[in-house]
Amino acid sequence: MHKILIVEDEPDIGRVLQAYLAKAGFRVETAADGAAAMRRFEAWTPSLVLLDVMLPDTDGWQLLAWIRERGACPVIMLTAMTDLESRLTGLNAGADDYICKPFVAEEVVARVQAVLRRLPMVSGDQVTAFGRLRVDFAAREVALAGRSVPLAPRDMDLFLLFASQPNRTFGREELIAAVWGTDYEGSDRAVDLSVNRIRQALGDWPAEEGEIVTVRRWGYKFRVRH
């Protein structure tokens, strides 16, 4: 069962979101400020965070940066700021989605489900090693020779998809639908850019153990040696 952490200082909004998400089958915890959110995040390891931009002791951008330093947990920003610049700020800072207030609770649940559908489906605390590369699917962590490999949230989504099905060829359109979502309207060039960033992050991983290879006129394959 996915765990959702709601970081929202308006009690009425928090209660409504908690009720709707619980009805949809999620385990839900809430925090009313940044300090409480950090404590709950570290103790509970949520599957996704719903994060209000305006908090009494900090702002959501700072908390988002703090979360990003600790991994690639999906984050959906909640804010009353509706201008394009604010939305772009959130997405460029590593948010997975951006919902403007006032919103309909059913839409928030649908957005949460959509973001979580992009993630590879794994069970338990699955950990897989590809030579010196260790992939922890449940924690969404990648380590190379014992050192953490930092990946942006969308890049982590893509890499975990590759790693969940090694030696399978994925088409670009398939990757767009699985990671960016079926409502994505941008170019499939986003896949190429994400793969390039992953390759750079894994630059010290020996090719004889594995690599992401380009399949001409089709897509990519996470090729590993057995």
Structural descriptors:
226 residues; alpha/beta; Rossmann fold; Arc Repressor Mutant, subunit A; 2 domains; 4-stranded antiparallel beta sheet; 12 strands; globular
Protein model, in words:
- There is one protein chain.
- This protein is α/β, with parallel strands linked by helices.
- The protein has 2 domains: 3-117, 3-Layer(aba) Sandwich (Rossmann fold); 127-224, Arc Repressor Mutant, subunit A (Orthogonal Bundle), CATH 1.10.10.10.
- The chain is built from 8 helices and 12 strands.
- The protein has helices at residues 11-23, 34-44, 60-69, 84-92, 105-117, 153-164, 172-180, 189-201; strands spanning 3-7, 27-31, 48-52, 75-79, 97-100, 127-130, 133-136, 141-144, 147-148, 169-171, 210-215, 219-224.
- The strands form 3 sheets. A 5-stranded parallel β-sheet has the order 2-1-3-4-5, with helices on both faces.
- Strand 8 (141-144) and strand 9 form a beta hairpin.
